[in-house]
Amino acid sequence: MKYRRLDENEDYTIGRRDEMYEGTEAVAQAVKTRLLLLLGEWWENRQDGTPLFEKVLGQRLRVDETPDEIDLVFSERISGTQGVSEITRFESKIDAESRAYTAEITIKTVYDTEFSVSISSGANPLEIKM
pTM to 2 decimals? Predict the structure, then answer.
């Protein structure tokens, strides 16, 4: 699997062959771009995308509430990514007082490797660690 790199503005890089990821890095980049694509944002398929505004942001969060619905949104986007074989760990929590959601996810690839994704509603909303 090959996947085009993103620049510092999260735009695809165009022009040079060395601007492609392969293997596990390609899968990680595909997961990242699928999570960052908002529902209705892509002109060729308005049904594709993460329903961030529709199902994640602005949800009423109670102290006793579990993040199950939000977890489902992210796990479906990740599982539907080419090169992902399974999600081996998904831990999330909601801090109702600050209205913050965080998740730590470990993903196994078809290359029999793993990488981690951190999602938060903080300053760095999506971080991929390999």
Answer: 0.85
